[in-house]
Amino acid sequence: MKVTLRRFALAAAVLATLGANAGAQVVDKKSLTLDGARRAIAAAKAEAKRLNAPGGVIAVVDDGGNLMALERLDGTFAAGANISIGKARTAVLFKRPTRFFEELINSSGKGRTVMTALNDFTPLIGGVPITVDAQVVGGIGVSGAASAAQDEELAIAGANALGNPAALMSILPVSYFDAMQVAAAFAKGAVLLGEDAGRNYMVHASRREGPGMAEVHEQDTDIIYVLEGGATFVTGGTVADPKTVAPGEIRGASITNGETRRLVKGDVMIVPNGTPHWFQEVSGPLTYYVVKVR
């Protein structure tokens, strides 16, 4: 009996120790999202525009080297896509900028040319790991800019935008639209500032002369400011006959059981992402700004 009790006590002690150490066996791991990959590319594009770079392909991979996003700028040679992906993969899998490997292989007297036989290894300048809170979450590679050094500059700008979001804003230009441009945009309804500018928001100069379809933006919050006209606006409820028309974008014929408001000049409405909304009736023409925040 005493032996059984001792064995039970020993088992209980082992289980208690395992339970106490369980937290030490699991770590919090950050992951790169698709939105993060797109922001890295946007920052690299903004830097290319600032430097007047002649083109290039920008690729972003996750921490396993899997491609998440790629964008090819105008005027880039055909092989640029594969090279940029290879640079990004090399940077993340080895957790070093690809400059290290190109210089190591080319260095006089100690060149490690045998490394070039490794699979998924592209030892060319222009690949940089993406690091957030001291964790490597992905890699970005650029190929096809004016020089290898410029490839690297664009990649660094993209990587820095995630590790330090303020870095992205520091390279974005101030946008200005004069009164004639704004009036022309409202005359037909147009995008003033789109997502290609590298920001997490867009600005629309919107115009309606009649009711529209019910909408749901799964990623974008709409901030609406009415300039002229009025509308009956419905939010919440259920979209009738919903259809996905684009990733994260749902449209339908109408909304049932929603909340109805009357919008007039000077009103502001904030519609959080994922919320159904519908211009049910319009006293047109209705002109309004929409700032879409992602």
Short summary:
This protein has 294 residues and is of the alpha+beta class. It has helices at residues 2-21, 34-51, 80-94, 98-106, 148-163, 165-171, 179-188; strands at 57-62, 67-72, 127-132, 135-143, 190-193, 201-208, 214-217, 221-235, 238-240, 243-246, 249-252, 254-256, 259-263, 268-271, 277-293.
Please explain how this structure is put together.
- Strands 5, 6, 8, 13, 14 and 15 form a six-stranded antiparallel sheet that branches. This protein has a four-stranded antiparallel sheet with strand order 2-1-4-3.
- The longest helix is centred in the first third of the chain and has 20 residues, at 2-21.
- With 294 residues, it is of the alpha+beta class.
- The chain has helices at 2-21, 34-51, 80-94, 98-106, 148-163, 165-171, 179-188; strands spanning 57-62, 67-72, 127-132, 135-143, 190-193, 201-208, 214-217, 221-235, 238-240, 243-246, 249-252, 254-256, 259-263, 268-271, 277-293.
- Helix 2 packs across helix 5 and helix 5 (148-163) packs across helix 6 (165-171).
- The chain has two domains: 34-171, 2-Layer Sandwich (Beta-Lactamase), CATH 3.30.450.150; 179-293, Jelly Rolls.
- The mean pLDDT is 85.
- Strand 1 and strand 2 (67-72) form a beta hairpin.
List keywords for this structure.
single chain, 15 strands, 33% strand, 7 helices, Jelly Rolls, 294 residues, 2 domains
